[in-house]
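User: I'll paste a sequence; please echo it back and then give the predicted structure.

Assistant: Echoing your sequence first, then the prediction.
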Amino acid sequence: MELAELAQNYFGDTRSGSLAGPVAGFIVAALAVVTVLLIRNMNARLRRLPDRFPAPPTQAPTRADDPATTRPEDPGPEHRTG
């Protein structure tokens, strides 16, 4: 097998009217712009954060302390039987 046979183009004319290069260049440029804008936005958000955060409480609240998880003592007249 000759080297010229391996280098044969079986896909037709791939040069005329091809937009792969310009489209890829546009996508790379758009990703670069988006990355720069994202970095600027994140830096602005980081600057707004306080230098130090308050210390967390020494004891985490339990589920019994949470009013959303406790049941009321008197469920009301619609739940009473008898």
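The chain has a mean pLDDT of 78. Helices lie at 3-6, 20-48.
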